[in-house]
């Protein structure tokens, strides 16, 4: 009797009923979780962002920190508006170039 090598005989695709049932249960559980996740995503429409906890009332320099935060928000808003304006300007330029190229042909 030789030990070591497995036989080269064809292994059938038959499964025990117990194994089939386990696989079906795992697939059903996976599908259930996917449906639940999709419902959760559809309800919110997007991934929820974490909310900034703010500054505690008893912080010694609360007013200055809040003023600084407001300045940063304004700067970020202005930068976003400038970026948006630049993108729209570039898009209009591309569209005009495309239209002039199409008209010349």
TrEMBL record:
Q: Where is the composition biased (Basic residues)?
A: 1-17
Q: Which residues form a coiled coil?
A: none
UniProt keyword annotations, A-Z: Nucleus
Pfam families assigned: GN3L_Grn1
Q: Where is the composition biased (Basic and acidic residues)?
A: 18-32
Superkingdom field: Eukaryota
The segments labelled Disordered in the record are 1-43
Is Lipid biosynthesis one of the keywords UniProt gives this record? no
InterPro entries, alphabetically? Gnl3_N_dom
Compartment(s): Nucleus
Domain Guanine nucleotide-binding protein-like 3 N-terminal, by residue range, is 18-93
Please give the name of this protein: Guanine nucleotide-binding protein-like 3 N-terminal domain-containing protein
Provenance organism? Kipferlia bialata
Query: Which classification does the entry list for the species?
Result: Eukaryota, Metamonada, Carpediemonas-like organisms, Kipferlia
